[in-house]
Amino acid sequence: MAKGNKQSKEPKGRKITLKMAKLALKLTVDGKRRLDLSNMEIASFPKCILKLCDVDELDLSRNMLKKIPDSIDKFVNLRWLDLHSNQLDHIPEAIGHLQNLYSLNLCNNLLSSIGLPNEIGLLQKLRSLNLGMNLLESIPSSIAALKELRHLGLFNNHLTRVPECLRNLPHLESINLKCNPIPSGDDKGIDPIQRVECLYLVRESCLCASCLKKVKDARQRLDSRLSRAPAHGRSIFAGLITPNSVAQEDQATWR
């Protein structure tokens, strides 16, 4: 029998060396250190990056990762973790040790309900959690402990009801539940939140000067139209700028 016939035909992915990882280090606009290894055809978690575990942000999105090791808890300073568009079906319990994390993106993976650990509820500083485009039929009830959570993505999953734990999140500003098989009428008590899936309330401090000018110009045009409309047809949103998700996405802080 010729040698090599038993070799695996599965792609091994690109091997990342410590030198490559160091070259991928970047400085964000707010002076944080980000390790950007996105879209590099990585199939297994590069062990060498554990030597760079003091970074503030880690981007491993758009790769072929199937597993995140327990050693992810070495990144104790991590505030931003992006794992979207991989092949993950499980997140380790060690994720709960990342106590400084404020943004976690797990969108577009293969996560089912058993793939999300209860320890995700230990991320007390978490403000943004994206679980969209997965296989979730439910989410851990421990998410109710994320009292600082502002933005939650649950779109394109298999949810058949609005999770009860969402009703206990005091600072939740936006939630996206689009493209789930949730029966109409099952959203009682969560209406004010669910409407925000297409409406983002943007603070002036979040916008650059250019975007802020565009928003104010749009608001002036809206006010002008409203001033000419019949009084009974007007809607007043006191204290708001213009609901605009595009402007928010243009900012360096909304990645």
TrEMBL record:
InterPro entries: Leu-rich_rpt, Leu-rich_rpt_typical-subtyp, LRR_dom_sf, LRR_domain-containing, LRR_LRWD1_dom. SUPFAM superfamilies: L domain-like (SSF52058). Residues 98-183 form the Leucine-rich repeat and WD repeat-containing protein 1 LRR domain. Keywords: Leucine-rich repeat, Repeat. PANTHER family: LEUCINE-RICH REPEAT-CONTAINING PROTEIN 18-LIKE (PTHR48051:SF42), PTHR48051. It holds the Pfam family LRR_LRWD1. Gene3D superfamilies: Ribonuclease Inhibitor (3.80.10.10). This is Leucine-rich repeat and WD repeat-containing protein 1 LRR domain-containing protein. It comes from Oncorhynchus tshawytscha. Signal peptide: none annotated. PROSITE patterns: LRR (PS51450). The gene is LOC112223508. GO terms for cellular component: cytoplasm.
